[in-house]
Amino acid sequence: MFHQLVSRNEDLQRLVEKGYAVAFDSNYLVVRDIPYLDSDGKLQIGAIVTKLEFIDQERVTQTDHQVFFAGSVPYGLDGKPILNLGGGPTQLALSEASKDVVVQRSFSNKPTTTGKFQDFFDKIESYVAIISGPAIELHKANPYTFRIVNEVGNDSVFKFHDTLTSRAEITDLSAKFKDDVIAIIGVGGTGAYVLDFLVKTPVSEIRAFDFDPFHVHNAFRSPGKLEQSELGKPKAEVYLSRYENFRTGLSVSRKLIDASSADDLDGVTFAFVCVDKGSSRAGVFDVLISKGIPFIDVGMGLRRRDGSLNGMLRTTYYSADNAAKLRDRGLADITDTPDDEYRTNIQIAELNALNACLAVVRFKQLRGFYFEDVPYYNLLFEIGDLKAVGESTFDEV
User: Is the pLDDT of residue 376 over 80?
Assistant: First the structure.
């Protein structure tokens, strides 16, 4: 990654050639060996960190004029904090390979003439002049060490740089998913959106399962662009083709999951059950419960009422400890009724997507990515009044 970025970006190459200790961590540019003065006029060494925004896989640009700083407040020759640096105390999580760089604050110093820096070389030079100038004058300190820092290995599951995470400064939160192996059982209306959301989540592996072909009605209830050549192909083939260029660790299998599918779920840490047939759900529940895999089951019930559609979306979390007990409560249908073949299965794309959102948000709460105020195991969202009600304790069971 280091040589690739430096060779394709002239401003980064100029930083290296001048002698800055340049490195890259996740989607940040890290410049170590930055000298500065502390409040006692003693020489200290810090690091400048700034976000990289990827134009493509090899070219980068700036997001703004700000930087992060690993170090205490820099002082001038007059013994006072350097003026016009703005910003303030903050924290930023980098990878384990950059554990020596502990960000403590941000700086904001916009060029007065142009209002923005020309490139990364201009940006780093400007901040170094401000931060390191007093230390260079007093201690003859040198920020141009030509030091080579071991490159941070790219262990990302994504085939594109995850600049969304770095721009939002949530790298530490996204790391909560790194050990997860997710199974998505059924990629129909709701399952297709669950797959779409999880493909963009840095879980280690995703295994999706669906036996059915992709027909026109599926195109109206799935994310992404429709290619006419997809119609009639297995859903597994269609969705693998759509996402295999986005990330690694993805498999989509044309297979039914039932009580005999234990081997397919070896190593799975969490599952999403997105099937609409009770008998199919029963077999899936059996194998997940037998293997102790926690899972979320989704459901949707819509009906015509006064010339409009109304109904509810359901998101039910079955933990490894309570799954069998919760199954017996009957929140999800695990049998087929005689009228099923005459039933109009109404599903609408935005409701499929909302159901998938509720399920994925609940999963991310369980991992600590999102804040959880009440630990709901069952959540119902009413279409008519746009309200959600939930159950959180088993005292009610």
Answer: yes
